[in-house]
Write a structure and sequence with these properties.
Length: 81
């Protein structure tokens, strides 16, 4: 698509790391987060493991809301290099 920025290749890994950090910071289990975000626990396991392929935008928004963080905090910034 003309004018669109490429998706960073480390995005799934960053997303997983940031979701796990936010979840643990709130003292939530994967089961708690799955319930709060209305997402399948297997999907959350995959996301935290660095494979966010099954997570759509609506799911990402529900995840951010459940963790009480902006979506941008979950996506994070690209690592230098």
């Amino acid at each position: 698509m003309p004018g669109s920025a490429p998706v960073p290749t480390d995005l799934p890994r960053r997303l997983g790391r940031n979701v796990r950090r936010a979840r643990l910071g709130l003292g939530l289990t994967l089961e708690d987060l799955a319930f709060l975000a209305d997402l399948d626990i297997a999907l959350l396991l995959a996301v935290e493991g660095g494979d966010g392929a099954g997570l759509d935008l609506a799911g990402l928004c529900r995840l951010a809301r459940a963790l009480d963080v902006p979506v941008e905090d979950l996506i994070g910034r690209a690592e230098p290099g």
